[in-house]
Every structure is written in structure tokens, then in C-alpha cells.
Amino acid sequence: MTADPVRAQYETYPYPARDPKEEAHRLVEGSPSHLDEVDHFCFAGRLRAKPSFNVLVAGGGTGDALVMIAQHARDRGIPAAITYLDLSSASREIAERRIAARGLDSVRFVSGSLLDVATLAPGPYDYIDCCGVLHHLADPDAGLAALVSVLAPGGALGLMVYGTLGRTGVYPLQAALRSMVPESDLSLQLSVARRLVKDLPASNWYRRNPLLGGWDVGTDAGLFDLVLHPRDRSYTVPELANWLDGAGLTPVAFIEPARYDPANWLTDPALIRRAKTLSPIDAAALAENLSGTMKTHIVYAARREEASNRIARPAGADTIPVARPAAKSLVPALAKGGILKMDLDGHALRREIGPGLAPLLERIDGQRNLGRIGRDLGLEARTLMARFETLYQLLNPIALLTLRF
Ligand SMILES: C[S@@+](CC[C@H](N)C(=O)[O-])C[C@H]1O[C@@H](n2cnc3c(N)ncnc32)[C@H](O)[C@@H]1O
């Protein structure tokens, strides 16, 4: 057993639990670090113009982001060089087998703490993924500073940290378990946790928080990560913004942007008008306080002085729209017209559907630019751009439609 309880946990229970054989059947995709999202929100859609793309996956675990980035880069013809870093050798072994199963050759594996990244793997890196890691460090400020020290000029980070409100109930349960079972016996901790979760009174906040239902507590690794973690903390939006600020960073985009827009959680026009006067961070904080649903925060961040003009905008015929498969499934609803209902963490978002959006969305394949799509549809440029803007305003805030050039 190692002296560091966090390392001990991830040596025994690599997280998330993954079987390399599954690579033959599916690619695990998500945020942060879906490459279309990174391209759109961090590199103004111009990632393919970069002669090289150096990526660090810090605390890469069993390899979800690593595999996704490497596969996306290969599929999109982006010349990526990707470095995986983690302190758990058991996790690294799984990640290595997943990369090998896909025959990807753009990855090098490094073992150690991200606190030592400047000596272990100095980079510099154009993009750093750090998903669900920094909130487990004794000193998250030192961890973030270490990552910034290897960030290339013009680079960006994709971070996920826990959100305080959405995790309501987790920390009292962690404290209860700590008081009932010593931290040194991982399997006893797990068996006590399984009994306690089943025996919680109906009034308990962990039991009453439906947002925690989606967590993978069926596996030992998942249950341990949620209710027995020896060290984890969560952030509110202002705490997250202050933390980034202390490292010289600023948020470029929260994912999905719609969740961080208070107007989407309100209906009263007078209240929406008030919300619209707030700064972006204050607005995001208000959205968090109104919704109560944010159990994680996914944020793309850049150095304060490099944060403007990072997000792609529709810019005429050369714009190549890229739709996620979930966007494509909206084609029938768009064809029907009327009101489109979208789900925002269980809250129904209603948007009026403009004319001609279904055939436009149908033709988006991540290859054709708007000029070509307009010709295919027989639309003159102004009509095409107006329709595209409507579609973009509908789907980009939920990160289903991004742009590249
Ligand atoms: C919750 S897992 C997340 C794994 C992966 N990023 C993902 O999202 O699937 C946290 C990972 O961070 C690693 N970790 C924790 N502290 C670390 C540190 N100081 N340096 C490098 N890795 C660390 C753990 O070993 C573990 O694999």
C-alpha cells in the first residue's frame, strides 16, 4: 500500500472501470476534450491549420479522454502528439491496452504526478486535458500552476471539476463513512459503503439528490470514487473563476454554454432582463444558483491575455459546420416545425423552430462548407446565412453544432 491515499485508491480501483476489449465496439466520447469542441471553443475552428498539436492528458486515468483525442485526431487528420500522465500504474496499463487495441501511435505514456510535469514531460502543450483530477489534489492551486507552466503560448485547457450544488449529499455521506470505517482497509470501506447506501433514511440528502443517480456506483471503482474518496472537493462558479484567475487563466466557455445562461432557467421577462445585465461570470454563477443541477463544471480556459477571439463564429461560405450525432436525431422534430423541446438537466428548454432548418441540418456532414450546402439547397447566400444562424443559435449552446474552417 502506498502512503498517498489517492494513489492507493487508483492503483486498486482504476477509474473509470474500462475493458480494453470494448474498443472494438465503441468510442467513449464526452467533454471536455471532444476534438470538435476543442477546435470550436479554444482554437476558433482552425485546429487543422496548426502544423502540430501537442496535447497533455494530465491524470489520464484509464484513458477515456486520451483514447478519444487520439482517435479524433486521426479521424480528422490532425497531426497530434499526445502525452499521457498519471500516478496510477494500474490505470496506465488499461489506457495503454486501449490505445494498442485501436492501433493508435500518437501517444507516449509517462508515470508520475502532474505536480512534476515540468520535469517529467515539459511540453509545451497546445492543449491540456485535466478531467476530474485537480479537485483530488491536496493543493489544487499548485496542480493548476504546474499545468500552466507547461502550456504553450496560445494554448488552452479543458478542465472538469466537481460542482458543489449538484453534489449535495455527497460530502455528508463521505464524512459519515469516514467516521464508521478506517481509511486503511479499502475492501471493508466498500462493503460498509454498500450497506450504508442501502440503509440511509429517506430524509438523507444523498438519497434525495436525483442527480447522483447517474453515477456509476455499480462498480467498486465508481462507488469508491463517489462516496469514499479520501480527498475531493467541489467548486461553485465564483470559486472556480477565482481559482482560474489565481493561475492567470480565465474561462473561455463553460460546457454546455446553455446551462450557464440564467435566461434558460427563468421564464419571467423582467427577471431575464435583470439577468442579462450581469457579467459572464456573475451570470454563470446565477445560472448555477438557479438550476441547482451542476454536479460538475466543464470549462475551457486560456491565459487571461489570450482569451479573446478563441471561439469560432459563422463567417460566410468557408464555414464548415460539424454536427454531433445527437443533433442529427433532431432532424424529424425540426422538419415538423413549431416548438423544439430540449432537455437541460431535466428542465425543458423551448425554442421556436425557424423555416428550412431540417434540410440544412441533414446536409451537415463535417466536410461540406456552407457555400457548398447553400448550392445543394439552391439557397442564395443571405437566406442560407440567416437560416444557419438560427440553427446555430439553437444547437451551439448545447454543444451539438460546432464550426471549423
Ligand atoms: C477520477 S480519475 C479521472 C481519470 C480521467 N481523467 C477521466 O476523466 O476518466 C482521477 C485520476 O487522476 C489521477 N491523479 C490523481 N492525482 C494525480 C496527480 N497528482 N498526478 C497525476 N495523476 C493524478 C488518478 O490516479 C486517477 O487516475
Strand order of the largest sheet: 3-2-1-4-5-7-6
Major sheet summary line:
7 strands, mixed
> Low-confidence stretches at least 5 residues in length (pLDDT < 50)?
none
Overall outline: globular
Q: Helical proportion? A: 25-40%
Structural class: alpha/beta
Q: Which strand-content bin applies to the residues? A: 15-25%
Cα Rg: 22 Å
User: What is the string of helix and strand elements?
Assistant: HHEHEHEHEHEHHHHHEHHEEHHEEHHHE
The total count of helices amounts to 18
Mean pLDDT: 95
Q: What is bound: which ligands? A: S-adenosylmethionine
Question: What's the total number of strands?
Answer: 11
Cα-to-Cα separation, first versus last residue: 50 Å
Describe this structure in words.
The structure is a single chain. The chain has 405 residues and is α/β, with parallel strands linked by helices. The chain is 40% helix and 18% strand. It is built from 18 helices and eleven strands. The strands form three sheets. The protein has a seven-stranded mixed β-sheet, with helices on both faces. Strands 8-11 form a two-stranded antiparallel ribbon. Strands 9-10 form a two-stranded antiparallel ribbon. The model has no long low-confidence stretch (mean pLDDT 95). The structure holds S-adenosylmethionine. S-adenosylmethionine is lined by residues 6, 10, 15-16, 59-61, 64-65, 85-88, 91, 113-115, 131-133, 136-137, 225.
